[in-house]
Amino acid sequence: MFKATLKSVAVALSVLAAIILILTAVDGAQNMTASAKNTFVKVAVVDLDGNPVHNAEVTVEEQTFFTDNNGLSPSIELKTLSNSYDPSVAEWGTVTVTVVGKGYIPTFVFNCVVFRNQTRQLTVRIYPEDASELPYVTYVESPPNDYLQHLLQTAR
């Protein structure tokens, strides 16, 4: 009788452990970032007149590069792709791009939309330092139009 009880407890603990493992995996999948292999961002940095800014520092996902004489960064491959607007959407994600240039105000692009397996061409217009005491410039991108249309239809 003691063996049957011990066996029942062991089975119950095994079932409980399996349930906890499954729940942990499901919960973790909701916040998981997917691999972004073959997904890139290429940044063009220009001043207010549209002239290329040479040697601007471009940072994406803790990867830092400098722009060339044409104001272009190299293609920056993303390591992961997460979506700050909707974690359940996997075909596109968002990244933050930081641009710092000598004589210019540091600039951030939040929620830069990048589609999986594509190269996003992003132009960032940066402002010269002046007497305005502006500490930084921020841009925030909206989600793609089809996603916004879906939200509108869902809300109605």
Based on the coordinates given, report the CATH architecture of the largest domain.
Sandwich
Q: Report Rg.
A: 23 Å
The computed structural class is alpha+beta
The major sheet is characterized as: 5 strands, mixed
CATH class of the largest domain: Mainly Beta
Q: Roughly what percent helix?
A: 25-40%
Individual helix count: 2
Give me the count of strands.
10
Strand content: 25-35%
Shape: elongated
Number of domains: 2
Q: How would you characterize this protein structure?
A:
The protein is α+β, with helices and mostly antiparallel strands. The chain folds into two domains: 1-32; 34-155, Immunoglobulin-like. The chain has helices spanning 2-30, 145-155, and strands spanning 34-35, 40-46, 57-60, 63-66, 76-77, 80-81, 92-100, 107-115, 119-125, 137-140. The strands form three sheets. The chain has a five-stranded mixed beta sheet with strand order 4-3-7-8-10, with no helix packed on it. β7 (92-100) and β8 form a beta hairpin. The longest helix has 29 residues, at 2-30. The radius of gyration is 23 Å and the shape is elongated.
In short:
The N and C termini lie far apart (62 Å). With 156 residues, the protein is an alpha+beta fold. The chain has two domains: 1-32; 34-155, Carboxypeptidase-like, regulatory domain (Immunoglobulin-like), CATH 2.60.40.1120.
Task: Write the SSE topology.
Blueprint: H1 2-30, E1 34-35, E2 40-46, E3 57-60, E4 63-66, E5 76-77, E6 80-81, E7 92-100, E8 107-115, E9 119-125, E10 137-140, H2 145-155
Parallel strand pairs: 2-9, 8-10
Antiparallel strand pairs: 1-6, 2-5, 3-4, 3-7, 7-8
